[in-house]
Design a protein that fits this description.
Number of domains of chain A: 1
CATH topology of chain A: Ubiquitin-like (UB roll)
Helix content of chain B: 55-70%
CATH superfamily of chain A: Phenylacetic acid degradation B
Number of helices of chain A: 2
Oligomer: heterodimer
Number of strands of chain A: 3
Strand order of the largest sheet of chain B: 1-2
Largest sheet of chain A: 3 strands, antiparallel
Mean pLDDT of chain B: 96
Number of helices of chain B: 12
Strand content of chain A: 15-25%
Structural class of chain A: alpha+beta
Shape of chain B: globular
Helix content of chain A: 10-25%
Largest sheet of chain B: 2 strands, antiparallel
Radius of gyration of chain B: 22 Å
Number of strands of chain B: 2
Low-confidence stretches of chain B: none
Order of helices and strands of chain A: EEHEH
Mean pLDDT of chain A: 92
Low-confidence stretches of chain A: none
Chain lengths: 94, 315
């Protein structure tokens, strides 16, 4: 057999209260094996308390070549930020 | 005037931005990275072999645990790096084939034998020390996945180097025979460690382009000099002598001047004529081939489970 085992993307939650974060990928025959391998590859020093795995081919990603147009609508909406609104100094913190 | 893709790419690099897998990049940038990252990954895998040789003969349980953890780390580092290389579109099996067929290179330092326990100390101290010197600047490499892999690797390497130095220190504080063993290991590993930084800048045609791409941040000679400057005082602390009669502190620059490196030896080893090239490759191929049934069985099991699941769904 000369066939790559499927590729999985690995996400680790380092502690409760934090998001799972992408840490890399690895090959495994199925999701259970991917979790076991991820434990050995990515949490040898207590880096995580929870692991998510997903086959790389199942991820849909935005296209970086469209980035300019895709994210442009947010560029001219300064009124979405708190500093857009003028308040007198007396209000102090708001 | 409209900028070409290549110009836009270089501008991004010049702003010190990172390149991510799906971003446009010149073919030559991609090729350079695939070669460098896969060679780096191969070096981690082959690097396990000289040390694995001593796991069963470590002098104490403490040393054995440390060495096993280190060798396991090297496997992990190889995996981080292969996964970074794969984001560039090269398959894992292709990289393995290149390693096993001898087409791909790995760090030539691993083609030297580990003759005594002191070699494990010298490797951790010098070889991992040199690797750290090379790898720390790679944490700021322009290619995102490579840089992120290097951050993880560097965090873990520091334990390797400290472990090696502790082994050397223990030997140097031991019996005269033990200290002589440490000296002998330093004698054999010193020059190959200096060669790890690669040819002199004048003989390294790819350096300029790699630096323009922010893959490399410092030249081979700069890093080599830093390594010498860092290591000489450590050898003094151990009370052993670096095997270089020309080694001398330059009071003006604060750098150590060191003697000429035997580049003929370096190229001999690179070309496959080092003391252990054949053994290393044979051990890699054997491990890969003898593990084939495990990979096949795992895939067969996964397929069976999936079929069962599908049957249950349609039933």
């Amino acid at each position: 057999m000369n066939k790559n085992l499927p590729l999985y993307e690995i996400f680790i939650r380092s502690k409760n209260g934090l998001h799972h974060k992408h840490v890399g990928s690895l090959h495994a025959s199925d999701p259970q094996m991917a979790i076991m391998n991820a434990r050995d590859v990515y949490t040898r020093r207590q880096e995580g308390i929870s692991i998510w795995v997903i086959e790389s081919k199942d991820i849909t990603a935005s296209n970086p070549e469209d980035s300019d147009a895709f994210y442009a609508p947010a560029e001219d909406k300064v009124y979405r930020h708190p500093t857009f609104y003028d308040l007198p100094d007396e209000v102090k913190h708001m | 005037m409209e900028l070409s893709l290549e110009q836009k790419f270089q501008e991004k690099i010049d702003r010190d931005e990172r390149i991510e897998p799906r971003d446009w990049m010149p073919d030559s940038y991609r090729k350079t990275l695939v070669r460098q990252i896969s060679q780096h990954a191969h070096s981690e895998l082959v690097g396990m072999l000289p040390e694995g040789n001593w796991i069963s003969r470590a002098p104490s349980l403490r040393r054995k645990l440390g060495l096993m953890a280190k060798v396991q780390d090297e496997a992990g580092h190889g995996l981080y790096l292969y996964s970074a290389a794969e984001t560039l579109g090269v398959e894992r099996d292709t990289m393995f084939d290149q390693l096993h067929s001898g087409k791909a290179k790995y760090s030539s330092i691993f083609n030297y034998p580990t003759l005594t326990w002191a070699d494990i100390g010298a490797i951790g101290w010098l070889v991992d020390g040199a690797a750290i010197m090379n790898q720390v600047p790679l944490c700021r490499c322009s290619y995102g996945p490579y840089a992120r892999a290097m951050v993880r690797v560097c965090k873990e390497e520091s334990f390797h180097q400290r472990q090696g130095f502790e082994i050397m220190l223990t030997l140097c504080q031991g019996t005269p025979e033990q200290k002589a063993m440490a000296q002998d290991a330093l004698n054999r590993w010193w020059w190959p460690s200096l060669m790890m930084f690669g040819p002199n800048d004048a003989e390294s045609p790819n350096t300029k382009q790699s630096m323009a791409w922010n893959i490399k941040r410092f030249s081979n000679d700069e890093l080599r000099q830093r390594f010498v400057d860092m290591t000489v005082p450590q050898a003094e602390l151990l009370g052993i002598k670096i095997p270089d009669p020309d080694l001398k502190l330059n009071e003006e620059t604060g750098n150590y001047h060191f003697g000429a490196i035997n580049w003929d030896e370096f190229w001999q080893v690179v070309k496959g004529h080092g003391p252990c090239n054949k053994d290393r490759l044979a051990a890699r191929v054997k491990a890969h081939e003898e593990g084939a049934w495990v990979r096949e069985a795992a895939m067969a099991y996964a397929e069976k489970q999936e079929n069962r699941l599908n049957k249950a769904k349609t039933a």
